[in-house]
Amino acid sequence: MVKALWEDFLKIAKEEAGSRVVETWFKAVSFQSFDSISNVVYLQAPNQFVKNWLKSNYMSLLQTHLGRLLQVHELKIAFVDDIATVAETSAITPSNDSFQMVPAQLAGERRGALAPLKTMARQVQGNINPAYTFDSFVVGPSNSLAYAAAHAITEKPGRLYNPLFVYGGSGLGKTHLLHAIGNAIKDNQQQAHVLYQTADRFVNEFISAIRFNKVHKFQEKYRDIDVLLIDDIQFISNKEQTQEAFFHIFNSLYEGSKQIVFSSDTFPQNIDGIAERLRSRLACGLVTDMYLPSLETKVVILKKKASLSGDHLPDDVAHFIASRVVSNIRELEGALIRVTAFSLLTKQPLTLDLAKRVLVRATEQAVSVDGERVMKVLARHYPYSFDDLCSKNRNKDIALVRQIAMHLLKKLTDKSLRDIGLFLGGRDHSTVVHALDKIEQLLHEDRFLADKVKRIESDVLA
Ligand code: ADP
Ligand code: MG
Q1: From the CA of 331, how far away is ligand 2's center (Å)?
Q2: How confident is the model at residue 322 (pLDDT cuts 50, 70, 90)?
């Protein structure tokens, strides 16, 4: 997507400034990232000369057209080599997490709208996103432990669970929670030096410190921190030198009772390519997990997100979106934005019918898995084999799992009802129709079963 955006920009620049300019100057530059929180585009120039030339001649062209393509007013342009200076003067560094291309304008406006005045005043310090607070975080069984631990450490940073290690799949709220810790500590102790950094950025910063002979400064910067929030620590794997540097920073902070928080998509023991001594440090405090929320929690999250953006989300629409999106909360939010944006742009009321039109089309295009995959995942959740399900056995439990299999095959594969019957031991079409009616009814009545089937569905799609 980034590449396409840069290509589009080059086309426009060619029209405006001519192809020689584009060939000479812009083609030498690469688009690194876009930080949608601070509205900064980071570019990389091959050398100082090109950079200075662009700065003195083409800044407004870059700002205008990249700004238009990204749908951002007053876009700022920075060059990656300058990051250290930018970061020191105004505490903004690019963060991949905040990269949001579509619909950028909507997300940007909403984020602005939902940050209360107090948080706006706090500004983006230490890379903390003011919109990600404990208040805007919905607590449910899937994240209550992580939430409780995160909340607890804000009362006594460095004293309680140190380090705190939060792990869970992508899009489940780890980054949000890390920022919430940062925001809460800043609220309690304004002087506290809090820094949020993705491990990715940490690695890049370290590499650039080596290149420019600034390792000492780099280490000083990190040793001077009271609360260090490192997101996606798994990205430090196989970066031996960075791990070494980080190990020393960790020790120095830890010994000074400074709070350290990590997030990762993997349990510490399972992060590959990481030195044993660092691994044991990561797991020496409290390790807590987050998993996929239940349907109820998803509904609450949707309602909260909608109300924060000033939208009214009817219950049936929230329920529909929550049951449709199975993989993670980021996608849940994406679906909500698609539905509300569609209603806003086409000036139609936000109804169940509209949500169905917007989302069903999208999911139907996206989803199609093969039958074997469904059966394999099903076998992880129930003690029956594919053969059991194909057999004529009418045992109640087997019959139920067989119906679930039919339901998932219909929903997730492109098999016709006839194919499904054949696939499951040569059953005829009417048997399948009957079984599907039955399971739909059951799923409607039994929330517990419905949740379980959703979980299986999300595993199939994972
Ligand atoms: P991760 O870092 O685990 O990949 P994020 O923290 O980026 O996930 O979460 C993805 C999106 O989902 C964010 O916009 C976040 O605000 C939202 N989100 C996740 N969990 C919750 C929650 N419990 N309550 C409200 N929003 C949530
Ligand atoms: Mg994250």
Answers
A1: 13
A2: very high
Domain chopping of the chain, boundaries: 2-88, 132-290, 295-365, 371-461
Whether pLDDT at 96 is above 50: no
Query: H/E element holding 276?
Result: helix 276-282
Q: Which CATH class is domain 132-290?
A: alpha beta
Torsion (CA) 95, 101, 103, 108 in degrees, nearest 10: 30
Ligand 2 centre distance from Cα of residue 232 (Å): 6
User: Which atom of ligand 1 has the smallest separation from the CA of 132?
Assistant: 16
pLDDT at 1: 62
Ligand 1 atom with minimal separation from the 172 CA: 3
**Nearest ligand for residue 265 CA:** 1
Separation of CA 163 and ligand 1 centre (Å): 21
Atom of ligand 1 nearest to the CA of 170: 4
The CATH fold assigned to 371-461 is Chromosomal Replication Initiator Protein Dnaa; Chain: A; (1.10.1750)
The answer for residues whose C-beta is within 8 angstroms of residue 264's C-beta and 6 or more apart is: 165, 166, 167, 174, 232, 233, 234, 271
Phi, psi of 350 (to 5 degrees): -80, 90
Task: Return d(Cα 245, Cα 14) in angstroms, integer.
Answer: 44
Distance 212 CA to ligand 1 centre (A): 36
CATH 1.10.8.60 correct for 295-365: yes
Which amino acid, residue 407?
A: H
Class of domain 2-88: alpha beta
| Rounded CA separation 419/399 (Å) | 18
Residues whose beta carbon lies within 6 Å of some atom of ligand 1: 132, 137-138, 143, 168, 170-176, 301, 329-330, 333
Query: Lowest-confidence range among 52-66, 75-89, 292-306?
Result: 75-89
